[in-house]
């Protein structure tokens, strides 16, 4: 379930949040993104983000059914990649944009937005969206395969 929730979060950012923010002026983009990034750091998000990794790992290592193990391991590998991308790419970009300060007092918000690398953030988020959706699909298929075997 947490993997499915994360696929939804990444997907929503990809096809709605970043598209909407992308159509805004520089100050609105920066302020909106900063507000979203501060708001998303909450127990619900963190439970889903970390839970997807932990619960899939537990499912892989406690699983005795060899028929579904490849699907669970594939999901785990994909989500480990997503976790790594998030920590190595998206979070540092988010943090740099937050550290830039109040967009309404910036001398050059266009330069701050450009330094954020919006296209890079969005491209890597697309990878996260596809990988997490695939991981969720693999976990769903593992449940189907488990039901067929049982």
From TrEMBL:
InterPro entries, per the entry: Anthrone_oxy
One Pfam entry name: Anthrone_oxy
UniProt entry tagged with the keyword Transmembrane: yes
Positions of transmembrane segments: 44-62, 69-89, 126-144
Keywords: Membrane, Transmembrane, Transmembrane helix
Name under which the protein is recorded: DUF1772 domain-containing protein
Source organism of this protein record: Paractinoplanes ovalisporus
Lineage summary: Bacteria, Bacillati, Actinomycetota, Actinomycetes, Micromonosporales
């Amino acid at each position: 379930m947490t993997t499915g929730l994360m696929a939804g979060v990444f997907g929503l950012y990809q096809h709605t949040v970043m598209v909407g923010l992308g159509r805004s002026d520089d100050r609105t983009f920066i302020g909106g993104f900063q507000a979203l990034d501060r708001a998303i750091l909450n127990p619900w998000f963190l439970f889903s983000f970390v839970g997807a990794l932990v619960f899939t790992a537990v499912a892989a290592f406690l699983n005795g059914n060899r028929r579904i193990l490849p699907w669970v391991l594939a999901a785990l590998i994909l989500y480990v990649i997503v976790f790594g991308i998030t920590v190595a790419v998206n979070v540092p970009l988010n943090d740099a944009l937050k550290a830039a300060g109040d967009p309404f007092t910036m001398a050059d918000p266009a330069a701050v937005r450009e330094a954020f690398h919006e296209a890079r953030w969005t491209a890597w988020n697309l990878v996260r969206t596809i990988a997490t959706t695939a991981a969720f699909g693999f976990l769903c298929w593992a449940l189907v395969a488990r039901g067929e075997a049982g």
